């Protein structure tokens, strides 16, 4: 029946073709986002196992192959033995123990290469077939550019731990993680917006609330990176009190000068900020969910708001457990994974309630209904 209708109606044929192309591009973007998610989780494991400095050189081409002989392994180990982390933290490490941390970092870097290929090659195919609208090509090229920048930022981060430190700079670690999260959000947001269909408009406060929660989640992940970079999770392992009080003494929170350094270098201040923002996000997500519930009877907006609140609540429980039990590896990995799931929920929800930008809609009547045609793709010739 569909084939017969498409044969008799050229507009229907174009619509079916556009839908097929859009579905292929959405699946591609979701697949790349899944790889980025895996990359973040492997990166978290690499950090928690102190593996990130095991490879002391950046070889974008030759680094694809790991050491293939015992002499090659010994050469890599000797390079690691020359940096402060080995001398101050791992002196006496065996070659087999070095191989364990090396494989974590090697896997992390290979995932970066895989993501680059998984993004660029299908993108070039879609461009060659004419499936991507010219107006959308700059956005997709921009996402690719962010990915290329991420590789450079990753090495910039690693380089900070090779000379005068036993770990990477918390500033650079936060930058690296934040950029990965921005790429992840851009991929999911773009894919979700491609699947839009006309729906009842939502009040501006709901759209603003969803977007604000997304921004707060990104800031919270950035604060989490600062906590990790300073090893702040190994201190002040009580909850709800921190340093003996719910709000520590100001003299201990702000003893560094200039004042701004406390927010990035003072272990107590960084952990306190991370805790307080978690409370703000939890309350904000709860109020937002109630607002959506009283405004929308059913649909993705209502479901997304409550899924986001539930994800935030579970993440806070994991964070408390990770802190109180002094950062055991399984809980720490679960906490990082859950952070990405919260980010996923916040991104999907914000994209769902954002509405369809007027300038990107070409509405046409089919069966008496208005159906928007989102301009991120078009039919190939």
Q: Can you offer a commentary on this structure?
A:
By secondary structure, this protein is an all-alpha fold. 68% of the residues lie in helices and 2% in strands. The protein contains 13 helices and two strands. The protein has helices spanning 2-8, 10-48, 70-81, 84-89, 95-129, 137-159, 170-194, 204-229, 250-253, 262-265, 267-295, 300-324, 329-353; strands spanning 364-366, 369-371. A two-stranded antiparallel sheet has the order 1-2. Helix 2 packs antiparallel against helix 7 (170-194). The protein starts with a helix and ends in a 10-residue tail after the last strand. Mean pLDDT is 88; it is low at 1-8 and 357-381.
What is the share of helical residues? Answer: 55-70%
What are the low-pLDDT stretches, counting only 5+ consecutive residues below 50? 1-8, 357-381
How do the helices and strands follow one another from N- to C-terminus?
Answer: HHHHHHHHHHHHHEE
- What class, by secondary structure content? mainly alpha
If helices are DSSP runs of H or I spanning 4 or more residues, what is the number of helices? 13
User: Quick one: how many beta strands?
Assistant: 2
Beta-strand content bin: under 5%
For the largest beta sheet, what order do the strands appear in spatially?
Answer: 1-2
Radius of gyration: 24 Å
Overall morphology: flat
- Main sheet? 2 strands, antiparallel
* End-to-end gap: 25 Å
Mean pLDDT: 88
């Amino acid at each position: 029946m569909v084939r017969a209708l498409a044969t008799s109606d050229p507009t229907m044929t174009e619509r079916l073709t556009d839908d097929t192309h859009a579905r292929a591009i959405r699946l591609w973007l979701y697949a790349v986002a899944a790889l980025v998610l895996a990359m973040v989780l492997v990166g978290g494991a690499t950090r928690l196992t102190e593996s990130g400095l095991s490879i002391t050189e950046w070889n974008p081409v030759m680094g694809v192959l790991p050491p293939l002989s015992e002499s090659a392994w010994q050469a890599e180990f000797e390079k690691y033995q020359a940096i402060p982390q080995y001398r101050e933290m791992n002196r006496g490490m065996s070659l087999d123990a070095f191989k364990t941390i090396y494989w974590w970092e090697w896997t992390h870097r290979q995932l970066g290469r895989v993501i680059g290929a998984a993004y660029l090659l299908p993108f070039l195919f879609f461009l060659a077939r004419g499936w991507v609208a010219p107006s959308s090509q700059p956005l997709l090229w921009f996402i690719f550019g962010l990915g290329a920048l991420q590789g450079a930022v990753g090495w910039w981060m690693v380089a900070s731990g090779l000379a005068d430190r036993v770990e990477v700079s918390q500033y650079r670690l936060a930058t690296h993680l934040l950029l990965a999260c921005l790429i992840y959000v851009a991929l999911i947001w773009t894919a979700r917006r491609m699947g839009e269909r006309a729906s009842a408009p939502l009040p501006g406060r709901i759209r603003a609330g969803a977007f604000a929660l997304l921004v707060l989640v990104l800031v919270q992940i950035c604060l989490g990176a600062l906590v990790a970079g300073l090893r702040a999770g190994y201190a002040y392992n009580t909850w709800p009190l921190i340093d003996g009080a719910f709000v520590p003494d100001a003299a201990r929170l702000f003893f560094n000068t200039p004042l701004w350094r406390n927010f990035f270098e003072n272990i107590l201040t960084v952990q306190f900020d991370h805790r307080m923002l978690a409370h703000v996000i939890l309350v904000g997500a709860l109020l937002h969910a109630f607002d959506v519930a009283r405004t929308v009877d059913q649909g993705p907006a209502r479901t997304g708001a409550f899924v986001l609140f539930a994800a935030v609540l579970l993440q806070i429980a994991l964070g408390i457990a990770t802190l109180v039990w002094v950062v055991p590896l399984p809980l720490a990995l679960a906490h990082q994974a859950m952070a990405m799931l919260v980010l996923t929920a916040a991104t999907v929800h914000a994209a769902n309630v954002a509405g369809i930008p007027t300038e990107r809609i070409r509405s046409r009547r089919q069966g008496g209904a208005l159906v928007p045609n989102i301009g991120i793709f078009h039919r190939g010739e």
